[in-house]
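Two entries, shown back to back:
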Amino acid sequence: MAAASQPETTAELDVLDSREAGGVFLRGGGVRMLAYTGAVTTSIAAMPFVTRHLRPTNFGHYVTVTSLLLIVAAFTEGGIATLGVREFSSGGNSERDELMGSLLGMRLALSLAGAGGAILFTALAGYPGVVVAGTAIASIGLLLANLQVTLAIPLTAALRLQWLAVLDFTGPAVTAAGLVLLVVVGAPLLPFFAAAVVSFVVTVSITAALVRGQVTIRPSFAVRRWRRLLSESAVFAAATALGVVYFQIVVIAMSLIASGHAVGVFSLAFRILSVVNGIPLLLIGSAFPILLRAARDDGNRLQYALERLFEGNLLLGGWLSLLVIATAPFAVHVMGDGGYAGATAVLRILGCGVAATFLAAVFAFALLSVRMYRSLITINAAMVVLAVVLCTVLIPGQGARGAAIATLSLEVALACAYALALFRARHDLRPRLGTAARTVVALGLAFAVAFAAPLSPLLAAAAGSATLAVAVVALHAAPRELWAALRRTAVVSPPE
């Protein structure tokens, strides 16, 4: 059935070509950040209950299944969401309904295949029965999550970020409530894998209601229509999935090599860091339609947008790195009590790589925008190989600490490789480094103040943050659009 309100959809997509696109992104991205903060707050509130109830070994099993399903999600995603945003942003009204039906059908088929592969892997690898059964339950959540992301393509393409913010908050909040309820009733490990399934039922229902009047929500299983999409999405999958899974490979390697307690220790630190590392994908993903349209139509606008994103992510990533490192003892104490000895050092090592993760997200989406898929595939494949090598060398002797060092090394290597590939091929996209250099100086001052004196974790974080704020203002070390956005006048386009 043809979409009932396609003219409205076209009008919404027209914002991508306007000077208002940047303002819409910054304001909508700000709302998404608030929603993400709310979601993080609920997750953080629930985590101490879960970690203390499950204890290190069972919590390690829980995170192992989560990481395995994230790997499967990356590959079964098949580049569909990224491809869908690109096609939806640039296609005509008559093409969008057929596109969405085909994408939904492909997503269902790939998700079912991936779920079967995950269950088979846990059985053959000799994991405990609760892990195999938990993988089967969590696979239902994988299927629903993949459908929700696909259904949200029209919202992302039209920069309807406020509704995406609602979804960003609702899913984690429902999951957190379910986890706490399971702790209260004293549930064993297995039911914990079902908490996310309930949340995805809710978010899929909301997303379907939001886009029902714009596009079809009925999957199409006409395989002949899938051929072109599969040929393109396979490239997207290879270009994007490998860059996601190397993080999770470290967790899986820990579960196969290290003791159950060590896996739990690393899982706690890794889970805390994952809260922070979700931010760059949220922000840059929101800006992706703008980058795609600029890459197609206006090279100057693309360079300007990437420069602003580079500056903003350097500042935000550096600040969050400071917070993670400074508050690591407090965070581990609150989240894990005394049962996760050694997690503080692991979290501090992981926190050193936060800024690199933020910058890698900018460069990755830039490479996608200019269709440098071969470079992405080569780099990401190399990172997977490097991840396996580092885990093999570092984990047997150093356990969770070795896994943290491997993860940090991978974060830095990935950001550097992406930047080198992008700027060697596209000299015109190189950012001017004046603001970035001042940001580095401001961050250096903040770290010096935070760790120069033996302050408590929270006081060190507060002192460093205050110093950073003063230094940023004094040195003009933030993108000027950031201040303009606060006055609701920002645009992400070159000044006239």
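entry 2 starts here
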Amino acid sequence: MERLRRLSGLCSEAATLLAPAADLLRSASTVLITSHVRPDADALGSSLALAHGLTLSGVVAVVYNRDGVPAELEFLPGSDAVVSDVSGTIGSFDLVVLVDCGDRGRIGDEFPWEGFSGATLCIDHHRSFDPDVADLVFRDESAAASAEMVYHLLAELEVPLTTAAATCMYAALMADTGSFRYASTSVTSMEIASTLLRAGVETWAVASALYESNPLARTKLLARVLDTLEVRGSVATLSATPEMIASVGADEGMVDGFVNHARAIRGVEVAAMITWPSPPECRVSLRSRGRVDVSAIAERFGGGGHVNAAAFSYAGTIEALRSELLRATEDVSGESD
């Protein structure tokens, strides 16, 4: 069985917290691992990889997500064991680990914190986070994915690397690096990927599941969404109303990734995907080509994220939102000077 090689690449602060984070995991016999609602490949893949590793160490590890497992991520080994309700069992866990999530609110208001008295650990790579989210925050915003943080932890714990855990981490890393295309992809990212491949990851199977297994409804929805494209200056927006989504038999989660079609337009620096999970309030997902820090834009609206990917909620008309986005982009990029 492949062993995880210890690698450099962590920022100095995260490097000092690696051993304490691993010790916290070693001290627990029952661990609940959770991530943000509407989990993506990094949130779920990293959570499952950590669970696989801890299980090999004799720990009882359970993965929880309020929204369960999206259909496109059901290929991840262990996804069939993910639970969406822990209200009656939360008191039995020694440790709660938040993965790819630096804010307790993002795991859902239903999480029964009042019944939990154990320790908490946060494993994350986002720029925006609540410093009080956990007893210990193991975070490195230079990491391409939370999967990188999980890799370092499992290496520190000296657990064997199974094909199942490797597949989960590889899917997470592939998704958050845009198939190793984004600027966040580092030497460490590629070194981790090579280790995962040696553990038996089937690269085409992962890529096919992530990118080439779309349900027909998602493709029909994309056609509708592209009709909403509007470009103002260097900002491009797409939108999907609840009625539009329902008309093709899709669900809101199927819009994930659509924003990249807007970002791919020549001259566009910031792309936004607008949806209405809780009308009249909308959710805005931002992507940048790298020159504009979209986390700074999102923070103006009470949201957050990374330099190249962020999100926020907004209450107002779509026309007002487009105008405000353009102004915020100009301010952050300095174009209005």
